[in-house]
Amino acid sequence: MYVALARVRLLLPGNHSLKGKRHVLRRVVERLRARHPVAVSEVAEQDKWQVAVLGLAAVGNEARFVQSVVDAAVGAIRGQTDAPIAGIERGLVGPEALSLEETGGSFDLEALEQRYDVEEDPDADER
Length: 127
Hints:
The chain is α+β, with helices and mostly antiparallel strands. The protein has one domain: Alpha-Beta Plaits. The chain has helices spanning 18-35, 63-80, 109-115, and strands at residues 2-11, 39-44, 51-60, 85-93. The longest helix is centred in the first third of the chain and has 18 residues, at 18-35.
């Protein structure tokens, strides 16, 4: 599993309130989510009116693919807002850097069905 990351710092020089900042960011975030398979959120400088920092992430099984997804999303930010980009930081986390721990969850469907008294739907074959 690979995780591509980007942190994009936007300048909002004509902005004079947090409400105005939210208006600009909401439009950018909604468009990114609708057009690019990335997670995106404001990650820093939330209390400053004229600066916004967005964090973007994409997860996949190929490094090149997730990097291209994040690069396309960053390019879309450039194209959809008048806010100048003050800086971009990029990163890639690969399988060797991930430390995942098993949580002990069970995916034994029979055991789950018995535990939660799941009954089969008698009409399931007809659908």
